[in-house]
Amino acid sequence: MKHHEIAAIAEQFELTGPLTQVAVFGNGHINETYCVTCQTEQGPVRTVLQRINQNVFKQPVQVMENCQRVTEHIHAKLKAIHSPMAARQLTIIKTSDHQIYHRDAHGEIWRMVNCIEQAVTREIIETPSMALEAARMFGWFQSMLIDLPGPALHETIPDFHNTPKRFKAFQDMLQRDPCDRAGSSQPEIDFVLKHAHVCDVLLDHVGQGHIPVRVTHNDTKINNVMLDQDTHQGVCVIDLDTVMPGLSLYDFGDMVRTATSPTEEDERDLSKIEMRLPLFDMLVKGFARETHTFLTPMEKQHLAFSGKLITFEQMIRFLTDHLAGDTYYKIHRENHNLDRA
Ligand code: GN1
Ligand code: MG
After folding, report:
1. pTM for the whole structure
2. Orientation of helix 128-144 relative to helix 277-291, angle to 10°
């Protein structure tokens, strides 16, 4: 989109001063994200403007309703205990007519949040202490939402981490092979077929009542936690689009996927990819620090397994999208989803 068009959208929101700049921001695979800068008497203030991808989120208003409930709940709890963390949490910036989103003339849904300053995200975790803090923050996030009042959150993407259904979708896509890509993806396809037996493990435990459904983040890619730029202490958790009923283990598992490898998820040189066990230890330690009081023995027993499962599930998702012709994740090069898989 052109700059003046984005600026016009940004101006629908309660800005703190005249808009001076808009720029593309972040590296998510789904939504379109911009950084909007406004001039104020205290200097420039940045906010984050996003267009919700409605191909992925079919009910964007429900996404925003969840975001509002979750952010307000966390704020209220932090304020009640006078926590300094309250000042650096995500807050929805409303439109001039007090709505939590703006619907443009094309039916696109836009939302704005504050930009958390002096904080950083990492694509790759460099040190054990960063792993500990990141995991502690995702554990903290679950603990903050354990007493979320009211009805269950909307399921913004139904069956998001239902691994058996992800596998079924993969099988269907493989059968159709609409872009004739199966032939050139054979090693990856064989891998999925060979390991399919792990898909049911967690949901079987849920079915038997051994693992509870909680409010979870569901997208705990390590770049979705912000650490203070100087102290590397945890500041906040971001990207709340998939906060909904889920398993604690989904959140732990995606941290394992994204924090234990010394490479980004689309690294092509597989010799560079490894499981850094000391970092895994730190993930357990950090996560346990915030969740040990409520995790059940069955959840604790499956922490390591969840890393394997969610990594496998993500592989299935990337491979399915590669076979589909890249209709879900943004790609930046040919075979990008295959590389990610
Ligand atoms: C997507 O948009 P982003 O990068 O935060 C995806 C996650 C995947 C991740 C893989 C709604 O997250 O589930 O784990 O890509 N989000 C959605 O990098 O599908
Ligand atoms: Mg996301």
Report:
1. 0.97
2. 30
